[in-house]
Amino acid sequence: MIYKPVIDRIEDWPINKISLQKDRILQETISEAILQLKKDYPNDQKIREQVQKTLYLERIRIKTEPWEVDPEDEAEFWNGIKKKVLHSVTNETQDSELVAKRNNETLEAIVSRYAHEMMGNFSPKLFWFARQLLRRIFARLFNAHFSSFKELFRPQDALKDKLIVSGAVEKIRALATKGTVVLVPTHFSNLDSAMIGFAMDYIGMPAFQYGAGLNLFNSKFFALFMGNLGAYKLDRRKKNPIYLETLKQFSKTNVMAGAHTIFFPGGTRSRNGAIETNLKLGLLGTVIDAQREHYENNPVDLAPKIYVVPLVLSYNFVLEASSLVSDYLRRTGKENYLVKEPAQVPFKAIWNFLWETFSKSSDVHVSLGEPMDVFGNNIDDDGNSLDHNNNILEIDKYFYTNGIFKRDNQREMIYTQFLGERIIDSFHKNNVVKTAHVVPFVAFELLKKKIGTNDIYTILRLPEEDREIDWEDFKMNMKLILDELYHLNNKGKLKLSQNLITKELDEVIELGIQNISIYHTNLPLLKNKKGNITSEDLQLLYYYHNRMEGYGLEKFIR
């Protein structure tokens, strides 16, 4: 199916209109961040303590983690902050109002610097160029041949069998004109943002705003594109309260302005390959803040609505799998982690990954969950919130206490936690299970059973001669797991890819082994000369196994 654009002209997209209001967005972000910080730290002493903490952490960052993208005046700026802090400390006996003014000026200077660093841009002309270029690149990478002259100029036509976007597509397209759509996807790779953006363009959605790691802007080429296609910058080195509050207010301000936005609620890529179950609620909570302020600032029937849409990406394999799982095992295992660590993935490997993914593997799934409001309630086709009996809800009432509309941080934290639980539930229900997920799951579980332990680090140290799994035993357990997956699919607990439904058992196994072994040098799974299953890289096998965690499948292994 070829989708018409929800909004025809790029110039009319919300992200472009917001880009034209950058000065207002910045000023609101700065003002709101300072206001909230003063509420959190309600006297001059506490504000100064946070400034000093930020200064201390930033000076360490400059020395220990410098990046090429860092501004040239980085050290100069923070030296200036240090002088202001020292001047304030040594003159505590002077007029208290003057001290407070200087503390506020210092705080404002830090918040302003952070906000300006975050700010991205959107160029309609560059977006149009990037769209034409990427459509042709993806069409080629997906190994899609142009069967007609028309498809040469409409390469998205040739991609419809390779990029599979499923779920509540039409409802989400309709909601994009009724309110603000916030996509909350799973996160496995640095390529996720590009893939989601391409998929959303494919179904005719206007461009989404999203956060990109500041380190990605080290490349001038990527900085040119990402910095002008809706990406704002996130610096994960900065964990001080002033930066985090500025980021939250930046996010809220843009959502309130109507920017369709992508939040990765897991905060970062899944290190162990599992679907996220521990979400970072800070940024997620900003959608509730934004919805409350919409009701504060508008009549109830005119207040803009925010819609939260879970999204699950399903690849056959992940570019950074080796380095991600190594990092996870090192952090969690500490002294137990004795396995040799792989080298980091070089940036040039991205092209090879894309080529192998889309030219040799069958497809990529982008599975959209049912939209919900910021409280996790279901949404009808007209954008109304529904209760469990499908009655329309007046969600402004969620912000009332004893008949009075008010902010309640503790209450809204509970709302955010519930929203997080609904997102996690949607992730599992909309997970498109592929052969490359099931086959490694069964293999790793059989290794656990074979040596009689659930200790991951013991399994990872298995010598090659102890990794062999009997072919017939493997097939029998694959059949048991597939039977349970069919059952879960029928109950709406997950989704199955077409290969798992239409292929015979032997074909499913062969495809699973092939699909996770296309890219990696050391193969997670292979058949040896005796026809049995073995592994050259147990870390990778563990990583791909983890995709099926959370369904209780391990109890069916015999």
Record the SSE blueprint:
Elements: H1 14-19, H2 22-40, H3 44-64, H4 74-90, H5 96-118, H6 124-141, H7 149-153, E1 163-167, H8 169-175, E2 179-185, H9 192-202, E3 209-213, H10 220-226, E4 231-234, H11 241-256, E5 261-262, H12 281-297, E6 305-314, H13 321-333, H14 349-360, E7 364-368, E8 378-379, E9 385-386, E10 392-393, E11 400-401, E12 404-405, H15 409-429, E13 432-433, H16 435-451, H17 456-460, H18 471-490, E14 495-496, H19 498-502, H20 505-517, E15 526-527, E16 533-534, H21 538-545
Parallel strand pairs: 1-7, 2-5, 2-6, 3-4, 3-5, 13-14
Antiparallel strand pairs: 6-7, 8-9, 9-10, 11-12, 15-16
Helix pairs in contact: 2-5, 2-11, 3-4, 3-5, 4-5, 5-11, 11-12, 12-15, 13-21, 16-18, 16-20, 16-21
The strand line-up of the biggest sheet is 1-7-6-2-5-3-4
What is the straight-line distance between the termini? 43 Å
Number of strands: 16
Q: Pairing-aware structural class of the strands and helices?
A: alpha/beta
Described by strand count, sense and barrel closure, the largest sheet is: 7 strands, mixed
- Number of H/I helices: 21
Question: What's the shape?
Answer: globular
What average pLDDT do the residues reach? 89
Label the CATH architecture of the largest domain: 3-Layer(aba) Sandwich
- Which CATH first-tier class of the largest domain would you pick? Alpha Beta
Low-confidence region ranges: 144-153, 341-348
Query: What quaternary form is this?
Result: single chain
Beta-strand content estimate:
5-15%
How large, in whole angstroms, is the Cα Rg?
Answer: 25 Å
Number of folding domains?
A: 2
Percent helix range: 40-55%
